[in-house]
User: Which sequence fits this backbone?
């Protein structure tokens, strides 16, 4: 059972990732259609004469409009990692593109050397031949979109497995993307060899299947449309139609590209479209969006209770517009898809009958989207010569609208179905307004300008979705298609129910195994960006509001204490540390057993303990990390985790690094860059080995995600930078021991890190304590309820503290915890 669920998750993610290039087709088709009209003498007369400025302008526009359709293999190769890669998807896109080019070159040489054995003739010029295509000047095997998808999926698997793999220092240049491409190079070579070996069999099978599909007629089209609708609840409909629409399964180059290419010919022919392009009947999935779903919405409205109709109209009208204009069906379909599966089955059957009727009467073309797409590919370029066909389609559609309306209305009334507006209860006005997409948190948005309102709504919705899915720690991965956010969760039992998601602003929820599909609507790309920020895939995010609905925030916590390390939990003489082996030199000290046991007891009493240090995560001693910490604030507040999930990630931005570079590179000093995973030392004479660099750029690119959080240098150099009128105000300086000062962004303080943790925890906790000993702990004191200074702390910190405990060498942490009755 688990194996089947896991496979279904992977198939759903793959299908959603494939959708990215398809989102570009509507606008590209519209531009092709408009430019074709603008260069037609039958439409614009003498303006379309070759050589006129008008003709030249539109000829250029038309050429550019073909970009998407002429580069489909490249688009699919690059787009798949956007949805599938679990880490650094942008780099994975680059790796996939290079690997696909290698795949094409491999096939090109195989065909050149062994083409006769494969039944393929290598062309002498840059033109396509039977079984051969040209990909950006490379004469290679024509694998449609299957080849690039196979290459891209292979690279994604290699990327996720090896991108962060550690290699020996002497092989440092072969880490990250270099390692991924090295492995991918040989993987796609094997893939190319397999592709070349099986090509005769595949071509024969494709040709047989193509003839079979072309001759299926109206009943075959009806069966296809029924399956496409029926697979939608589990999100597998993309896998059904994409090989037909965009690949060679029905016609070479796919239905979309071929139809678009033939538009000039079709616009000058009066022959029936089903004779000119019988293969175009399979895209009849959009007729129900134009005629069926609006009729169903009217049936819901007319059967609703009179007092509910006004509020129901606010839900139905935007959903009808989305269906008819944009081809987005989920807002209407999810009003009955799961509550009444019988109605959805009827909907799929009637959709099939509508498609069969259109095909039977010869109405074919690109009709899979809404009015915008239909106009671009059909009505605008072909109305002059095929108006009769489209008027017939209008008549058929209106007849079926009546059939949809009467069928749904009759069943609703006959069985007293509690469809929208007929429930025995109704959600709050807030939930209804959010369902329409018009909800605005007035308190938060009053501080923002009008242009920020939509972004604020999207961000709030993303936060709510993450919370209702069980929090960041319960989320394994996520992709999106046109309207849905597809999320793999670790524990589906803690995911909220459909009604809660609707009340939060989503359109609905489907849970299949460990895959949760959150229906957002056409704004899903924007919501996904905020979702990725919350998940820690992008730097600089901190929660705007506490995730008060999160499952792991529902219970009340005990007290909280943030512990500094150096000079608080333990201390080590920095001069003696330099005498340690290189692998231990940067590690923090770790506390003695008395202090360690006190922390264990503190946690066992129902409290939460956090490390709060200026050190990077990689420089905290492993023995210290073995204690029962609930989370960590490190890098002076630049990075924070709560129970394994990232709640703050604010590195030095590239622009600031660029402005610091002249000071650092010309200083003649050894400069230390700290990232989350390692430390890199930069100097003019640094050895050419991993962990060392001679320029700022070389140093930062060795850090995870290229994120530097702190830079350590001599105090005189730091003071000189602080005197820079432009740079100084952007930085936070903290003087350490041995005339060393660390700099970080102004907003990166322990206070900011602690605040991010407390915001993520929510308000249900006891008193917040903080224990520290150095100047950077002033910010810690400001962030907690009770600040504790160590006995070895400077006087200015003791003045800020609420209580002064013993020094570290007298176990001051234990004394403080005992003083407040925490152990």
Assistant:
């Amino acid at each position: 059972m688990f194996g089947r669920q896991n496979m279904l998750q992977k198939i759903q993610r793959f299908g959603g990732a494939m959708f990215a290039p398809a989102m570009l087709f509507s606008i590209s088709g519209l531009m092709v259609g408009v430019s074709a009209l603008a260069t037609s003498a039958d439409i614009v007369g003498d303006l379309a004469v070759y050589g006129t400025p008008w003709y030249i302008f539109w000829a250029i526009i038309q050429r550019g409009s073909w970009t998407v359709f002429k580069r489909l293999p490249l688009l699919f190769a690059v787009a798949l990692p956007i949805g599938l890669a679990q880490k650094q998807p942008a780099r994975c896109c680059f790796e996939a593109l290079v690997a696909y080019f290698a795949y094409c070159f491999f096939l090109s040489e195989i065909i050149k050397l062994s083409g006769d054995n494969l039944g393929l003739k290598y062309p002498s010029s840059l033109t396509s031949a039977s079984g051969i295509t040209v990909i950006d000047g490379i004469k290679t095997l024509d694998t449609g979109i299957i080849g690039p998808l196979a290459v891209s999926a292979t690279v994604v698997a290699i990327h996720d497995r090896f991108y962060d793999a550690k290699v020996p220092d002497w092989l440092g240049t072969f880490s990250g993307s270099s390692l991924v491409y090295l492995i991918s190079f040989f993987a796609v070579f094997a893939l190319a060899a397999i592709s070349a070996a099986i090509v005769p069999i595949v071509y024969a099978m494709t040709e047989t299947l193509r003839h079979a599909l072309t001759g299926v007629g109206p009943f075959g089209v009806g069966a296809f449309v029924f399956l496409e609708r029926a697979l939608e609840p589990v999100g597998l409909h993309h896998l059904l139609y994409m090989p037909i629409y965009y690949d060679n399964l029905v016609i070479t180059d796919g239905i979309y590209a071929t139809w678009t290419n033939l538009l000039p010919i079709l616009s000058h022919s009066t022959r029936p479209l089903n004779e000119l392009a019988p293969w175009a009947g399979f895209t009849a999935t959009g007729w129900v969006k134009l005629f069926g779903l609006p009729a169903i919405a009217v049936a819901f409205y007319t059967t609703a209770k009179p007092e509910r109709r006004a509020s129901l109209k606010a839900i139905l009208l935007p959903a009808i517009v989305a269906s008819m204009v944009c081809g987005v069906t989920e807002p209407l379909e999810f009003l009955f898809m799961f509550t009444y599966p019988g109605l959805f089955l009827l909907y799929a059957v009637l959709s099939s009958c509508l498609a069969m009727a259109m095909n039977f009467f010869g109405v074919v073309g690109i009709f899979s989207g809404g009015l915008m797409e239909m106009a671009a590919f059909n009505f605008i370029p072909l109305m002059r010569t095929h108006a009769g066909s489209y008027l017939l389609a209008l008549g058929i559609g209106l007849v079926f609208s009546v059939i949809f309306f009467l069928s749904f209305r009759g069943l609703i009334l006959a069985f007293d179905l509690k469809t929208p507006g007929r429930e025995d209860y109704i959600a709050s006005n807030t939930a209804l307004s959010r369902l329409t997409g018009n909800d605005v948190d007035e308190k938060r948005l009053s501080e923002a300008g009008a242009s920020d309102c939509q972004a604020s709504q999207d961000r709030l919705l993303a936060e709510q979705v993450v919370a209702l899915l069980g929090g960041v720690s319960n989320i394994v991965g996520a992709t999106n298609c046109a309207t849905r956010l597809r999320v793999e969760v670790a524990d589906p039992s803690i995911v909220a129910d459909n009604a809660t998601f609707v009340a939060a602003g989503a359109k609905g929820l489907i849970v299949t195994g460990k895959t949760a599909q959150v229906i957002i609507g056409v704004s899903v790309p924007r919501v996904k960006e905020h979702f990725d920020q919350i998940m820690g895939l992008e730097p600089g995010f901190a929660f705007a509001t506490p995730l008060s609905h999160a499952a792991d925030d529902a219970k009340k916590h005990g007290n909280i204490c943030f512990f500094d390390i150096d000079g608080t939990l333990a201390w080590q003489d920095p001069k003696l540390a330099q005498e340690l082996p290189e692998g231990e030199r940067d590690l923090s000290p770790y506390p003695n057993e008395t202090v360690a046991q006190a922390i264990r007891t503190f946690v066992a009493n129902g409290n939460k303990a956090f490390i709060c240090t200026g050190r990077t995560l990689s420089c905290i001693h492993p023995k210290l990390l073995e204690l029962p910490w609930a989370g960590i604030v490190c890098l002076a507040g630049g990075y924070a985790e709560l129970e394994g999930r990232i709640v703050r990630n604010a590195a030095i931005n590239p622009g600031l690094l660029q402005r610091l570079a002249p000071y650092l590179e010309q200083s003649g000093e050894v400069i230390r860059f700290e990232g989350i995973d390692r430390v890199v030392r930069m100097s003019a004479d640094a050895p050419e080995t991993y962990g060392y660099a001679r320029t700022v750029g070389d140093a930062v690119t060795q850090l995870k995600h290229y994120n530097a959080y702190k830079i350590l240098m001599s105090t005189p150099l730091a003071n000189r930078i602080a005197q820079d009128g432009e740079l100084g105000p952007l930085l936070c300086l903290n003087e350490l021991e041995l005339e060393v000062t660390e700099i970080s962004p102004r907003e990166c303080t322990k206070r900011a890190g602690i605040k991010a943790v407390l915001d993520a925890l929510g308000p249900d906790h006891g008193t917040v304590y903080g224990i520290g000993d150095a100047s950077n702990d002033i910010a810690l004191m400001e962030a907690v309820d009770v600040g504790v200074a160590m006995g070895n702390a400077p006087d200015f910190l003791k003045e800020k503290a609420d209580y002064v405990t013993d020094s570290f060498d007298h176990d001051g942490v234990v004394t403080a915890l005992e003083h407040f009755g925490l152990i």
User: Anything to note?
Assistant: The radius of gyration is 32 Å. Residues 124-129, 425-451, 538-556 have pLDDT under 50 and may be disordered. Residues 371-414 form the longest helix (44 residues).
